[in-house]
Amino acid sequence: MKKFNKVDILGVQVADVSFEDTIDYIVDAVKNKKKTSIFTPNINLLIAAHKDQQYKDVLNTSGLLVPDGKPLVWTSKWLKQPLTEKVSGSSLFFKLCEVSAQKNMRVFLLGAAPGVGDIAKQKLEKQYPGLIISGTYSPPFGFENNPNELDKIVKLLQESRSDVLVVGLGAPKQERFISKYLKSYNIPVSLGLGSSIDYAAGVQKMAPEWIKKTGFGWLYRLLDQPARLGKRYLSEGPLYFMLVMKQIAETKKSKEVRMN
């Protein structure tokens, strides 16, 4: 598996990868049956990791962490370790479906509300002729504390003969699940991709690509879901900026000490 340079952002090791690098990494892992996990840290995940060392360890022990958000790219430039580009998790999901159709890779969808995965399956298989969605499942609330339910999920995954698992349970639940059970099922690549299944089914609106490229995808989501995201964005944004400024100051001070 190809190794990538990493940039430390608030203690989380974000890979310097392009969108195409990420797709190539997935295809290579499937081809060579190399088990790996891919997560897409954004401000929300970085703040959660800052508050929870165990969750930070879950992220840092994954196969690949791609920068899902322009703020991470901007931060890397402030740290003078510029990341190549933002790798949007939702855009990655749709490109993955396109490539999976071309390369006969079977994709399992785990997450979203009951019935949403089936709608996503129908739409995706129509949009990408040849794509095989090998299964869908919506775990009930509290499944992570139910051993019988967890055994059921692992069995479903094991029997699906999938090449790629897309988990849309939301952070940090999806990353914790993958980290804990990756070795329990025989699927080479597992990705935590948040609301991607909802986007595919059409139950949530996805920001247009031109808005994503400007770095204001977060504003589009906020205007679409103010009740759910307003409080989170207002609290996490300033905290993230403060923590980054602190890291920059500490990095600068450390360099000055080494030079003296």
TrEMBL record:
Keyword terms, alphabetized: Glycosyltransferase, Transferase
InterPro entries for the chain: WecG_TagA_CpsF
Bilayer-spanning residue ranges: none
GO molecular function terms listed in the Swiss-Prot or TrEMBL record: hexosyltransferase activity
Pfam families: Glyco_tran_WecG
Protein name, per record: WecB/TagA/CpsF family glycosyltransferase
Lineage: Bacteria, Pseudomonadati, Bacteroidota, Cytophagia, Cytophagales
